Amino acid sequence: MNILIMGGPGAGKGTVSSKIVNQFKILHISTGDIFRSEISLQTELGLTAKKYIDQGLLVPDEVTNAMVKSFLEKQDISNGYLLDGYPRTLAQAEAFDKLVKGTDLEIDKVVALEIPFDVLSSRITGRRLCKSCGAIYHITYSPSKKEADCEKCDGVLYQRKDDTLESLEVRLEEYSKNANPILTYYSSKGLVSTVDANQSLETVWKETLIVLGENK
Ligand SMILES: [Zn+2]
């Protein structure tokens, strides 16, 4: 089975991805992996991509798309693959579909992890970390027994710079801008299943297995 996983910041995409890969024994493919592999193998595409990266430029879609296909062709994908972080734009999604059309590399299923904005914002903006030992608290869900200090080491608790509402909104907007057209596109092909990520990991995983056709 060939799966694409989508999920914005805080949706738990990393955790679910590794569970899918273990469960289905499929290849986990992230764009970072592909770029690293093609560049270290010094393929023509890899070298082209490197030129852009070295100049601090975005790698053009056609290079990225061709690189993804070339990478997939070299892997053992008899069980399928999990795409993670690619396609990143609608243009990439359409181009990738064209590249793999009629081959056994076509995407079979898109899993979209969804989490309501207010839940996400309270999860992220309430997070506090200990400066000394790195312990993680949440002002509502798991507050320190010593309020502003760490209950383990008395260290000072602080809020990470990225954990503000403004920063979260920027990250979410960036994600939605690209993800929404991709999801609309794959929905029109009947491939998308959404999973409510605002649940325990156990429940999220159970639902993921169901949408992937493993009823357990
Ligand atoms: Zn501490």
How large is the radius of gyration? 20 Å
Counted beta strands: 8
Bound molecules: zinc ion
Helix content estimate: 40-55%
Tally of DSSP helical segments: 8
> How far is the N terminus from the C terminus?
18 Å
| CATH structural architecture of the domain at 3-26 and 77-116 and 166-211 | 3-Layer(aba) Sandwich
Query: Pairing-aware structural class of the strands and helices?
Result: alpha/beta
Strand content: 15-25%
Series of secondary-structure elements, N-terminal to C-terminal: EHEHHHEHEHEEEHEH
Note the overall shape: globular
Give the CATH H-level superfamily of the domain at 3-26 and 77-116 and 166-211.
P-loop containing nucleotide triphosphate hydrolases
Report the CATH C-level class of the domain at 3-26 and 77-116 and 166-211: Alpha Beta
